[in-house]
Amino acid sequence: MRRGDTAIVAVRAEFFTKLGRDLKNRSPFRYTYIAELANDWIGYLPDLDAHKLGGYQVWTGYHSYAEPGTGERIVDEVVKLLKELGP
Questions:
Q1: What band does 59 get if pLDDT is binned at 50, 70 and 90?
Q2: Which of 17, 26, 27, 67 is deepest in the core (most CB within 10 A)?
Q3: Residue 85 in contact with residue 30, Cβ under 8 Å?
Q4: Taking a C-beta distance cutoff of 8 angstroms, is the pair 35, 8 a contact?
């Protein structure tokens, strides 16, 4: 969603910080806000580095349904959509 120089992105997961920062840095909008856990829940969404480190948030199971690389792919798609909206 866009309003002037502000974009609001809905993601149906809990983004790890690195993914959110990457999305905001690559967004063509001056202000980009991320609404997590919107319209569903697929668990924690770690970045590739976090997957390598391990931990309960990255194990496939009830708390995370995503395979490694899913977070980066979502960020790439969201940035593509934001560019289509254009500031």
A1: low
A2: 27
A3: no
A4: yes
Question: Are 44 and 57 a contacting pair, CB within 8 Å?
Answer: yes
State the SS3 of the chain: CEECCEEEEEECCEECHHHHHHHHHHCCCCEEEEEECCCCCCEEECCHHHHHHCCCCCCCECCECCCCCHHHHHHHHHHHHHHHHCC
pTM for the full model?
0.87
Given pLDDT bands bounded at 50, 70 and 90, which one contains residue 64?
confident
**Which amino acid does the sequence have at 78?**
V
Q: How far apart are CA 86 and CA 73, in angstroms?
A: 20
Quote the CA–CA distance of 4 and 42 in Å, as a whole number. Answer: 30
Token duo for residue 12: 């149906």
